[in-house]
């Protein structure tokens, strides 16, 4: 069980369950029951009646299941205003608009293209949670000048990054909000809380054309199938963040926001007040997150459609689901083949996926197979568009413009 949100900068250790919001359109008890129901793929939502019209490989999405996941995110976080969902999972303006309709006003992006797409789609608060240096600083400042109705924020962990942002903002005639990126043990970006970090934060606050926007701490290394161990790991990792924030404020420095969490930890960190949580995979879900975070109950809302293109042997199928269609940065299984969960993968190349399966004789060349990707975020980045499933058919396409490295800026 999750601890309840405390009233004064931490967690109420006496409570045993996270506080939930009351929604105007649905009784809280009904929403609680819906949030805790077990997600399933048994309803075969992904099977479409017009599969013969769909070139493969293709990525299909269900707006109904996306909407359900967004509602569950809000219920878990306590309110839409506490969420800063990651855009990199979906990269689509249609999903941004669904989030805006539910009161999600803040977004977290990983690229300038994602930032631009989010602003064009109507986002008014966009945090570029990737160290901004060199030309990226000038691009972000140009984006801020081109979209004055959107507040753009950046992160940094170095004096050079601060200087680049300050000069770029001045040259573009804008002001940029900058958060200090803290390393809570991941060891990828950020600086450890301490005196050097405090000096960097003071440098942000003093830099021309910049405002000190708070702290950013991403905990991508924290995931454990044992929920209690994960809670303990989060508490240990973030104790220094809370102490550092308190010290900055005691020193007279503003810390208007603290942006935290990856997907596995977002419900745990949402139990702390004075934070924004950044869940992302929860929007579309995937097979890998379901394994890592068995305590989170979300619905797979994206599925790959692939076909048997050859049968190289009595126990093998060759599918058109190569590296160009499904994320391949992880070892196999890189997808959950629905109905073929026991399959192994002896060959995976750019256009081909060879599947070893005793039941290969049950399939003919041309047969359609569906698969949930293990990692949906980089899988979406491989597709220019997705096909939208409504009432068992795909009649609509959504573009994925933010898969590009550059849109206009």
Order of helices and strands: EEHEHHEHEHEHEHEHEHEHEEEEEEHEE
Helix content: 25-40%
Q: What is the total number of structural domains?
A: 2
Mean pLDDT rating: 90
Using DSSP, what is the number of strands? 18
Question: How big is the Rg?
Answer: 22 Å
Uncertain runs are 1-42
Distance between the termini: 45 Å
* Beta-strand percentage range: 15-25%
The CATH architecture term of the largest domain is: Alpha-Beta Barrel
Report the major sheet: 9 strands, mixed
Assign the CATH topology of the largest domain.
TIM Barrel
- What shape does the CA trace take? globular
Q: Structural class, judged by helices and strands? A: alpha/beta
In CATH terms, the superfamily of the largest domain is Alanine racemase
Top-tier CATH class of the largest domain: Alpha Beta
Determine the number of helices (DSSP H or I, runs of at least 4 residues).
11
In short:
This protein has eleven helices and 18 strands. Strands 3, 11, 12, 13, 14, 15, 16, 17 and 18 form a nine-stranded mixed sheet that branches. Strands 4-5-6-7-8-9-10 form a seven-stranded parallel sheet. The N and C termini lie far apart (45 Å).
């Amino acid at each position: 069980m999750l601890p309840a949100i405390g009233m004064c900068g931490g967690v109420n250790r006496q409570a045993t369950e996270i506080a939930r919001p009351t929604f105007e359109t649905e009784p809280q008890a009904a929403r609680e029951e819906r949030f805790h129901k077990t997600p399933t793929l048994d309803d075969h939502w992904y099977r479409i009646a017009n599969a013969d019209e769909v070139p493969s490989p293709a990525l299909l999405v269900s707006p109904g299941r996306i909407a359900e996941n967004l509602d569950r995110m809000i219920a878990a976080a306590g309110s839409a205003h506490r969420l800063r969902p990651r855009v990199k999972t979906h990269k689509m303006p249609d999903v941004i608009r669904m989030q805006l309709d539910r009161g999600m006003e803040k977004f977290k992006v990983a690229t300038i293209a994602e930032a631009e797409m989010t602003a064009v789609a109507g986002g008014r608060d966009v945090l570029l949670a990737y160290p901004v240096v060199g030309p990226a600083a000038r691009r972000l400042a140009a984006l801020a000048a081109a979209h004055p109705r959107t507040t753009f924020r950046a992160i940094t962990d170095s004096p050079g990054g601060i200087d680049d942002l300050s000069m770029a903002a001045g040259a573009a005639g804008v002001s940029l909000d900058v958060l200090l990126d803290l390393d809570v043990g991941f060891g990828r970006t950020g600086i450890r809380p301490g005196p050097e970090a405090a000096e960097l934060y003071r440098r942000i606050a003093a830099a021309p054309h910049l405002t000190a926007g708070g702290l950013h701490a991403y905990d991508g290394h924290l995931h454990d199938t044992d929920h209690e161990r994960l809670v303990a790991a989060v508490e240990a990792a973030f104790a220094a963040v809370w102490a550092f924030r308190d010290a900055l404020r005691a020193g007279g420095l503003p810390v208007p926001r603290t942006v935290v969490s990856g997907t596995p930890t977002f419900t745990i960190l949402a139990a702390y007040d004075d934070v924004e949580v950044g869940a992302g995979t929860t929007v579309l879900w995937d097979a890998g997150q379901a394994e890592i975070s068995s305590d989170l109950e979300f619905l797979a809302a994206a599925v790959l459609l692939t076909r048997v293109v050859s049968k190289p042997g009595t126990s093998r199928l060759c599918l058109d689901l190569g590296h160009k269609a499904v994320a391949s940065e992880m070892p196999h299984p890189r997808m959950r083949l629905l109905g073929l969960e026991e399959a192994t993968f002896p060959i995976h190349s750019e256009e081909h996926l060879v599947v070893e399966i005793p039941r290969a004789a049950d399939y003919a060349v041309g047969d359609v197979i569906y698969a949930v990707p293990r990692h949906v975020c980089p899988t979406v980045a491989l597709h220019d568009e997705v096909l939208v499933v409504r009432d068992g058919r795909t009649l609509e396409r959504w573009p994925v413009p933010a898969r590009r490295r550059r849109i206009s800026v």
